[in-house]
């Protein structure tokens, strides 16, 4: 979701700003723009669509200037066209914004009565008009900024330049992240540290309610009353190399193939590979004393949480209440301080997940964050942090973050089971041993199934609708398979609990709707095979994802059977994730879709 960059530089900045925007492309966007101040005048180039459209404009009409701001926009208010693209200019004020100004409509009416003429449909433009109005009324830049911040409400990262001050950029954060980069005689700001990584690794993260002013060599942070606040800088580990595709065609493919190595690294944080025991986790949450867990997340992270529910309930006998965060936050769910709440988020910035966290905190629960970005807001507002250590995930469709979330949830459920006396020492050893073997099995599976999946994806790409079925932990996987396929290939797909087939989706089964059945040879196998029979009896085409035992046991005719090694139940969801990820990936690639940046989707959803 929108990316922001700014530079107070010594050399021309336009090319560097666009270069930094490229590192924010993964967040999702549908237009882009850049503005500089040169010889006392603001100028800008904006373009609909991808960054190369903006670059072509810049190649045709150079944009000089050693100070500038730039933006990739993910449309919320107003269509993604050039007029709505940021930066917005009003009377010598330039503004870029990530988030939503919730009271924009009321402010706009007031400004129009005052004579303001709006040139876009965005909520952002009210910010530029307010700043222009306060400047006209005689306020200095800093005072105008503070006055504006005291009028707007909602979620925002805002970055502002004034034409008559070509040495200063003002900014504010209330919701979406904003990082300040300290250079040598130059200062930077961006939506994350990766965007700034070629320029500097010394980063100061702003927190909600901060207003920051940068000049060539200085950062000043204050609250909205103008009272100074201190924010320490830190050395960021982010490097531009992290956003390199290597030999892969897409980031998604690279991230799928990285999984064995990354998951092994992540597991090393939670289990001891030598003694086959779980390591002590963040002590802020004591699983032995809990009456229950509440889990909330969005998208793929929610589906990881759903697998986690099965594990916590089965292994730790801990009841789990789980919901998508956009519902959780408003459900007025009765919670008790004897429960703990877990929030799962790759980015750690998802607005609905953060709001659910704050709700649970107000109810007195201890808060745990299963996050990838450790500096994120969700991590900072939690009592216990469980990092998934997946490294930056650039593909909008989550892959390695999902399996790392699962690995962390599996480890935590075993740890919780030990703490609660529901998992014996022998069971702990056995399960951790399986987890330790998982990276090797993942490597083998990725190599073995790739050619078959690529060929199968050609068939799948010809269909318009696909149904995924699974039982137990394979049910959330069926939903994740459907989510992956629809978000990147645009083929309509639904994930269902296999037992629900008879209660609706069976009406849709014919030769035009393939059914992908995810069924390891586990406790539910026979039941799922009965559901497959119901599909076959109606002429449905089956793609069967199973293991060696399952393939040998089923006599049904299938369009394809993908056979994985026999693995223990605790690692099956991670292993079975691989074929569903690859199937979605190859199908989308065959269809020529924009795999890493699917239309209308954003990586980090910082608005409701
Ligand atoms: C967006 C992304 C998904 C992600 C979801 C939750 O929809 O496209 O890949 O699963 O947000 O994001 P989070 O950062 O909270 O895991």
List keywords for this structure.
2 domains, binds 6-O-phosphono-alpha-D-glucopyranose, Glutamine Phosphoribosylpyrophosphate, subunit 1, domain 1, single chain, 608 residues, alpha/beta, eight-stranded antiparallel sheet, six-stranded antiparallel sheet, Rossmann fold, 17 helices, 23% strand
Written overview of the protein:
The protein has 608 residues and is α/β, with parallel strands linked by helices. The protein folds into two domains: 245 residues, Glutamine Phosphoribosylpyrophosphate, subunit 1, domain 1; 334 residues, Glucose-6-phosphate isomerase like protein, domain 1 (Rossmann fold), CATH 3.40.50. It is built from 17 helices and 26 strands. The strands form five sheets. It has an eight-stranded antiparallel sheet with strand order 3-2-4-1-10-9-11-14. α13 packs parallel to α17 and α14 runs parallel beside α17. The longest helix is centred in the last third of the chain and has 36 residues. The termini are close together. The model has no long low-confidence stretch (mean pLDDT 93). 6-O-phosphono-alpha-D-glucopyranose (G6P) binds next to α8. The site of 6-O-phosphono-alpha-D-glucopyranose has 16 residues, from α8.
């Amino acid at each position: 979701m929108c990316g922001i960059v700014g530079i107070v530089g010594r050399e021309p900045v336009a090319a560097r700003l666009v270069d930094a925007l490229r590192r924010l492309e993964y967040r999702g966007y549908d237009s882009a723009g850049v503005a500089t101040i040169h010889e006392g005048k603001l100028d800008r180039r904006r373009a609909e669509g991808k960054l190369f459209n903006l670059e072509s404009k810049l190649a045709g009409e150079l944009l000089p200037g050693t100070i500038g701001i730039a933006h990739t926009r993910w449309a919320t208010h107003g269509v993604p066209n050039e007029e709505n693209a940021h930066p917005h200019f009003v009377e010598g004020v330039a503004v870029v914004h990530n988030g939503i100004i919730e009271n924009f409509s009321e402010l706009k009416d007031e400004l129009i009565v005052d004579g303001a003429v709006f040139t876009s449909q965005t909520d952002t433009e009210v910010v530029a008009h307010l700043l222009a109005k306060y400047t006209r009324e005689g306020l200095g830049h800093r005072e105008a900024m503070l006055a504006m911040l005291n009028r707007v409400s909602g979620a925002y990262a805002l970055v502002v330049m004034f034409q008559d001050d070509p040495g200063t950029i003002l900014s504010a954060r209330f919701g979406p992240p904003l990082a300040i980069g300290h250079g040598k005689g130059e200062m930077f700001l961006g939506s994350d540290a990766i965007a700034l990584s070629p320029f500097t690794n010394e980063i100061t993260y702003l927190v909600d309610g901060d207003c920051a002013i940068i000049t060539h060599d200085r950062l000043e942070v204050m609250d909205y009353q103008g009272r100074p606040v201190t924010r320490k800088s830190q050395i960021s580990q982010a490097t531009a190399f992290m956003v390199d595709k290597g030999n892969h065609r897409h980031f998604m493919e690279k991230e799928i193939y990285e999984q064995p190595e990354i998951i092994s690294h992540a597991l090393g944080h939670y289990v001891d590979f030598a003694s086959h025991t779980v390591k002590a986790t963040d002590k802020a949450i004591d699983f032995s004393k809990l009456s229950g867990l509440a889990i909330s997340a969005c998208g793929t992270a929610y589906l990881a949480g759903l697998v986690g529910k099965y594990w916590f309930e089965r292994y730790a006998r801990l009841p789990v209440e789980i919901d998508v965060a956009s519902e959780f936050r408003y459900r007025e769910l009765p919670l008790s301080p004897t429960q703990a709440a877990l929030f799962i988020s790759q980015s750690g910035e998802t607005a609905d997940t953060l709001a659910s966290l704050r709700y649970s905190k107000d109810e007195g629960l201890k808060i745990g964050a299963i996050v990838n970005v450790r500096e994120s807001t969700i991590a900072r507002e939690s009592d216990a942090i469980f990092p998934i250590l997946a490294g930056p995930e650039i593909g909008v469709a989550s892959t390695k973050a999902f399996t790392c979330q699962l690995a962390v949830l599996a480890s935590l459920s075993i740890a919780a089971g030990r703490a609660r006396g529901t998992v014996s020492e022998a069971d702990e050893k056995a399960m951790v041993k399986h987890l330790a073997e998982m990276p090797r099995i993942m490597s083998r599976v990725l190599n073995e199934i790739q050619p078959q999946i690529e060929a199968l994806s050609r068939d799948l790409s010809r269909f318009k609708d696909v149904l995924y079925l699974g039982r137990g932990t394979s049910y959330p996987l069926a939903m994740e398979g459907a989510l992956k396929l629809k978000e990147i290939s645009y083929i309509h797909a639904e994930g269902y609990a296999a037992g629900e087939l008879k209660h609706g989706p069976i009406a849709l089964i014919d030769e035009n709707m393939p059914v992908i059945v995810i069924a390891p040879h586990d406790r539910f196998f026979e039941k799922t095979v009965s559901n497959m029979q119901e599909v076959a009896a109606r002429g449905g085409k089956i793609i069967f994802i199973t293991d060696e035992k399952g393939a040998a046991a089923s006599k049904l005719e299938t369009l394809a059977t993908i056979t994985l090694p026999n693995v223990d139940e605790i690692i099956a969801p991670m292993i079975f994730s691989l074929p569903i990820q690859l199937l979605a990936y190859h199908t989308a690639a065959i269809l020529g879709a924009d795999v890493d940046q699917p239309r209308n989707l954003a990586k980090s959803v910082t608005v409701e």
